[in-house]
Amino acid sequence: MNQPLSTLSALAVVCMAALPPVQAQQVPGDAQAGKQKIAMCIGCHGIPGYQASFPEVHKVPMISGQSAKYISAALLAYQKGERKHPTMRGIAESLTDKDIADLSAYYEQHGKTGTEPPAKPRREPSAQVAELLKKGTCASCHGENFAQSTDPSYPSIAGQHADYLFVALKSYKIENNTRLGRGNAIMAGFAKQFSNAELKALARYVGSLDSKLHTLPQPDFR
Question: Is 129 left (phi over 0), alpha (psi -120 to 50) or beta?
Fold first, then answer.
């Protein structure tokens, strides 16, 4: 298939890693079992407003309400070193396929309210951002409201922390670094089409939208 990279990247858009479902997603996940395995997660993902300091200061992503298939794919990418982050890789490497499936099932259902974001964003983008979204054909992966992805292995990004989205998008531009970056050729092709200022504008808009994602305080941190 001889499509230009720009066409392929347009289909990937802001997919934070459109990762193939493998191993862990073939193992049935048990949300109740996952609840007993979150000790390594809640120290960052269970504290509202918690900020990471690597590779720069940004809020850690909200994962409660995220797709189980996406969480599994992301953890496997950290485990394999396709996503380079020392802390996350260390955690992912300690998990079995069953652990990943259980944790993913837990966070998918964690904090569900039964209320979904509107079918289309209630906040209109600026003219600049509208052009950027059009250039990236973002809805082709993430849906018209950026909350209901067209494939469950793609993340919901509406309302995600804008500073995290920006850092994640920039990471696809990084090359030949053993500690930083994300190894996804399609997303790299996408990110490199845009300046950092444009990526920040995209991240700010998407982060301002109605979301199904949450950071819910865990009992140990109430």
Answer: alpha
